Amino acid sequence: MPASDARTALIETALADLARVSPSFGARAVARKAGVNHGLIPYYFKDAEGLLLASIEEATAKYLEAFAELMNGRSDPVERQGPALVDTMIDWALTVIRTDPAHFARKRNICSLAADNQNVARYAQKLVASEVAMTSNFIASVRGRKVCTQSDETTAHLLIALFDGIAAQAAIGVAVDTAAVTATVWQMLVLPEGG
After folding, report:
1. Domain region containing 73
2. What are the pLDDT digits (tens) for 131-178?
3. Exposed, middle or buried: residue 161 (CB in 10 Å: 0-12, 13-18, 19+)?
4. Is residue 128 part of a domain?
5. How many domains does the chain have?
């Protein structure tokens, strides 16, 4: 196996382990599942924690790239975009769940692992901060503002929690009432300042 393939296999296998219901992270087990010699872990990543951090960085980059793609070009005021904007957001979340059901599980598990590891905590904080910043900027733009307000940031936190909840429900097969979600999100986006 070429060197770059071994590194990629280790990261992909580690990402799969991060998506398990009860994540446990063992470098030897990851190497075995990836079909590579565990001696390659220190070669590519310094140690098991380095592999874990590289995997989290990869997961974070993929998530933020997908999220940025969703937000790209959506700066018209919310009144002009209407509920179709919210439907697009919901469709995106449900598409991510269908095409990569492990996506939100990885996010949840990264945050769980962060409780025990300061290095993982830094990556988890980066993930959350980037997600909140992008969502806040998006909300400000559709509300017709160039600068985010506290209201935009609060709404961003609520939307992120809502979509993470939808993801958790969809992951276990609970049907999502998209009409109710659309109405709720629409109200959150058009809520007047201080209202």
Report:
1. 56-190
2. 888 888 878 877 778 888 898 899 888 888 887 777 777 767 777 777
3. exposed
4. yes
5. 1
Residue 179, in any domain of the structure: yes
Asked if the structure places residue 28 within a domain, the reply is no
Secondary structure of the chain as H, E, C letters:
CCHHHHHHHHHHHHHHHHCCCCCCCCHHHHHHHHCCCCCHHHHHHCCHHHHHHHHHHHHHHHHHHHHHHHHCCCCCCHHHHCHHHHHHHHHHHHHHHHHCCHHHHHHHHHHHHHCCCHHHHHHHHHHHHHHHHHHHHHHHHHCCCCCCCHHHHHHHHHHHHHHHHHHHHHHCCCCCCHHHHHHHHHHHHHCCCCC
What are the Cα distances from residue 65, in Å, to 61, 131, 195?
Answer: 6, 10, 32
Instruction: Give a yes or no: residue 17 inside a domain.
Output: no
CATH of the domain at 176: 1.10.357
The torsion angle over the Cα atoms of residues 90, 157, 97 and 45, rounded to 10 degrees, is: 150
Q: What's the pLDDT at 195?
A: 46
Q: What is the pLDDT of residues 118-140, one digit of tens each?
A: 888 887 888 788 888 888 887 88
In this prediction the pTM is 0.67
The position carrying tokens 């991510």 is: 96
Contacts of 51 (CB under 8 A, 6+ apart): 10, 11, 14, 27, 30, 41, 44, 45
